[in-house]
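The records we work with from here on pair a chain with its fold. These numbers are not coordinates but entries in a learned vocabulary of local backbone shapes. To see the layout at work, look at the sequence and tokens printed below.
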Amino acid sequence: MSHEDTLRAQLWASFKNRAMVYYEVYKVLEEEFGAQRAAELLKRAIYRRGCAIGQRFSDLGPGDLAGLEKAFLAFIPDQGRVFEPRVIRSDGEALEIQLGRCPLKEAWLEAGLTDGEVARMCEIAGVVDNGTFEAAGFGFRSETWQPGREGCCHLFISKGA
């Protein structure tokens, strides 16, 4: 195995470990507070982390979608291989990106979570993107993975207010 292949495997393992940390934190919170409150608390923490990430893009907000596209795609690890982003729309008014894969989702599936549990964890983990783009000053919504759907998150980014 080449040095690059070793580093790539370690990168994927790191993402998958992050996924399982999210899941274990969720399960502990669920035991203490119930499923709804557990999801709310974990989302709040992950959103805050997204806001910190969003600071790297804040000079582009609220309207430089072309700059954001370039910067965000360059930010995805391993030259985009980790999430396999595909730009669906980029026209100065909106930026739409479909993620082709997600190591977090793959980790949860490999761990034997049901489709419903994976969808819940994707919804929780996906708020990192809300924090990222909103903190940078852009409008944002997403569609996280659901059973039967290909790929993973579908990101819809627009100019901010």
